[in-house]
């Protein structure tokens, strides 16, 4: 399953403190999920929800946080696998 395809099914509902309530439709069923997020996690999710590719997210965050793209790619992948 592609990560982009998975995230296109999510819709941000609202931020509650440090958590996001998201609404999703998967396998034809609607449900809500609460995601605890740090700042970088929130940025990753928001960009994916807005339609940016995983590669674009990695490049943007690597530049923003002044880290190697390969290191950021691993961080993004690790984060998404936890969801």
Compile the SSE list and pairings.
Elements (H helix, E strand, L loop, with lengths): L2 H5 L2 E7 L2 E8 L2 E8 L2 H11 L4 H12 L3 H14 L1
Antiparallel strand pairs: 1-2, 2-3
Summarize the structure.
This protein is of the alpha+beta class and 83 residues long. The protein has helices spanning 3-7, 39-49, 54-65, 69-82; strands spanning 10-16, 19-26, 29-36.
Which key features would you list for this structure?
alpha+beta; Arc Repressor Mutant, subunit A; 3-stranded antiparallel β-sheet; 28% strand; 83 residues; single chain; elongated; 3 strands
Walkthrough of the structure:
By secondary structure, the chain is an alpha+beta fold. The protein has a single domain (3-82), classed as Arc Repressor Mutant, subunit A (Orthogonal Bundle), CATH 1.10.10. 51% of the residues lie in helices and 28% in strands. The protein contains 4 helices and 3 strands. A 3-stranded antiparallel beta sheet has the order 1-2-3, covered by helices on one side. A hairpin with a 2-residue loop joins β2 (19-26) and β3 (29-36). α3 (54-65) crosses α4. The chain starts with a helix and ends with a helix.
């Amino acid at each position: 399953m592609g990560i982009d395809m998975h995230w296109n099914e999510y819709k941000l509902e609202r931020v509650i403190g440090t958590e996001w309530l998201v609404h999703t439709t998967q396998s034809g069923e609607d449900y809500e999920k609460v995601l605890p997020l740090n700042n970088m996690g929130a940025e990753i999710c928001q960009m994916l929800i807005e339609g940016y590719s995983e590669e674009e997210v990695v490049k943007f965050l690597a530049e923003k946080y002044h880290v190697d793209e390969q290191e950021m790619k691993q961080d993004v992948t690790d984060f998404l696998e936890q969801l």
